[in-house]
Design a protein that fits this description.
CATH superfamily: NAD(P)-binding Rossmann-like Domain
Largest sheet: 7 strands, parallel
Order of helices and strands: EHEEHEHEHEHHHE
Low-confidence stretches: none
CATH class: Alpha Beta
Helix content: 25-40%
Radius of gyration: 17 Å
Structural class: alpha/beta
Shape: globular
Strand content: 15-25%
Number of domains: 1
CATH topology: Rossmann fold
Number of helices: 7
Mean pLDDT: 96
Bound molecules: NADP nicotinamide-adenine-dinucleotide phosphate
Oligomer: single chain
């Protein structure tokens, strides 16, 4: 990463998994804000939000604006990483309230918070980056995670369209999506623990773990940070395996 960069960084879901690893692997001078329910990751300022609740979205937008107003560094970054698998199971058979939360977090929050970030940074002259965490499930349908996969597909198409829009702005925000591959986090453990009726591919993930096939969150996090310095077209939809 470029030397002497002074950064203001928001990460949704920095309390665990890849989000916490992003915090642990960010070198240099950065104010890091964790947008999550639990918080507790050292080196972050915690804004306690349940991002599946639309009432939290204006709270995040206000935080974008307030911190940006007092920031005189070079680079601003929002990594939208928070997501949920719950409820795993066929559409039409899961709890409706839980299904609704899945749609709100995985699909709606990503777009609304992305829009809020772009509005907050428009007109500033910082180096601007918006990175969305996607998944292979955006492209390949998996029984049992319909709204998760649909949310990730929505993220990818949002990034493609907004990347084209931002190319017209000077300076524009660089908008990317990245699928991290299979990473050793609580989310992966949830897949392995799923009943085969709810998620028929659970056994594939059990085998993958048994073969040592899961990536370490810190390795994936370093690849994600490398995106800030890579020469990539705005709106690129990427997979970690194509980068490392
Ligand atoms: N791990 C993999 O193999 C894998 C594969 C493909 C894609 N991904 C993607 O990578 C990203 C990170 O996944 P992970 O494996 O690190 O997941 P994880 O270990 O389950 O962590 C999820 C993070 O999201 C936050 N989060 C969940 N629900 C939230 C809510 N309602 N409001 C606010 N924050 C919430 C959690 O924080 P709180 O609980 O504190 O709120 C936590 O920090 C996700 O976008 C996921 O879809 C992961």
């Amino acid at each position: 990463m470029k030397a002497l960069r002074r950064m203001l960084v928001w990460i949704s879901g920095a309390s665990a998994g890849i989000g916490a690893a992003l915090v642990a692997t960010l070198a240099g001078d950065a104010e890091i804000v964790d947008l999550s329910r639990r918080g507790g990751t050292p080196g972050t300022q915690h804004v306690a939000v349940d991002l599946a609740d639309p009432a939290s979205w204006p709270v995040v937008e206000a935080d974008f604006r307030r911190r940006l107003a007092g920031f005189d560094g070079d680079t601003v970054v929002f990594i939208h990483n928070a997501a949920t698998l719950s409820p795993l199971g066929p559409a039409g058979s899961t709890d409706s309230a839980s299904y609704t939360r899945n749609v709100l977090l995985n699909s709606a929050a990503a777009q609304v918070l992305g829009d809020a970030f772009l509005r907050a940074v428009a007109g500033t002259d910082h180096d601007q980056h918006l990175i969305m965490l996607s998944s292979g499930a955006a492209h390949k349908p998996h029984e049992g995670e319909s709204s998760y996969g649909a949310g990730k597909a929505a993220i990818d198409q949002w990034v493609r369209a907004v990347g084209l829009e931002q190319q017209r702005r000077h300076p524009g925000c660089r908008v990317l999506s990245i699928a991290p591959g299979s990473v050793d986090t609580a989310m992966q453990a949830e897949l392995r623990a799923a009943a085969d009726e709810a998620f028929p591919e659970a056994s594939r993930f059990r085998d993958l773990e048994a073969r040592g096939g899961l990536a370490k969150p810190e390795d994936v996090a370093r690849t994600i940070w490398s995106l800030l310095d890579r020469d990539l077209p705005n709106g690129s939809v990427l997979h970690v395996k194509d980068l490392s």
